[in-house]
Amino acid sequence: MLGLGRVGRSPGPLAADIRFSFPSVVYTYWHSSRQTIAEKVESMRKLTRGVVSPTAIALVMVMAAPLVNTTGTVLAAPSGDGTRVALSNALRRCDGSRIDGATPSQPAYATADTLIRTGANSVVADVQLVDTQSPGTHYDVGLIEVPRPSWSTCGPGDPGTAFGGLDTDAGGRGATTLQAGIQPGATGVWVVVQRPNPKSQTPTEYYTSDFVAPI
């Protein structure tokens, strides 16, 4: 998936999250704090009890669509070596469908892609990104399995997700691998890479899979 765009410029610890709820849209962001990963996950679980907008980290997306795939999302044919998917400058719902009209706060220059592979009851996403203009940059990365119920979220700690980070070297190149157990009923996955903006509800840059890769 070598998609075009640039993600993240300001390295920093992954920590607490903020989610904003719009009419049928849920935005999620990472921001810096001193919480430990355990504290972050615990706070996320507490917020998810009895509220429509539970916490999630590293994503910008709307609420998932029903289990039936009626969004017109493209599915690629699987291959023995996995499915390579380009990442492009687009926001997506939890089901992988594109959110039209979204605009990043700055141009996207990175080139990125992911290779989706499956193993024994697990799915793996090998993510690569290149942005020679932004060496030493941190990127937030997530893997989302679909389909998902309309009421579900797809942030860290949610079933069928995996999250991590990617940091570019002095040449602006970086790579990371995410792995998650395949949930019952899951038929595909998509990947998100983004750089949050502490001054805005929308990430500075964001890149997502051009299509849902079958698993």
UniProtKB/TrEMBL annotation:
Domain of life: Bacteria
Protein name in UniProt: Uncharacterized protein
UniProt organism field: Mycobacterium noviomagense
